[in-house]
Design goal:
88 residues, alpha+beta, three-stranded antiparallel sheet, 23% strand, plasmid
């Protein structure tokens, strides 16, 4: 039976759009790269010496097993980043 994985954001209590796969290690590596890239804007950016798992833990992400239906929904999710609105 095929397994599916998604990157879960613990702070937002939701999966990150488009970050899914059928290999746990691949999703972990993609998530860690995303966390590292985002950390470069921080005053104290992440260390390149951290493992992928450590990087995800540090920035509040974890790889979770998901269903095929969830995989399809998350992989087709067009949301990206945070949206802000202004009322005039």
């Amino acid at each position: 039976m095929k397994k599916y994985y998604g990157l879960f954001d613990l702070q937002l209590d939701d999966f990150k759009p488009g970050i899914v796969g059928t290999n746990h290690n691949d999703v972990e590596a993609i998530g860690a790269e995303r966390a590292y890239t985002l950390s470069q804007a921080d005053e104290e950016s992440a260390s390149e010496n951290m493992t992928d798992k450590e990087m995800l833990e540090e920035y509040g992400y974890e790889v979770r097993e998901i269903t095929e239906k969830e995989y399809n929904q998350i992989s087709n999710d067009q949301r990206s980043g945070l949206l802000t609105t202004t009322t005039l």
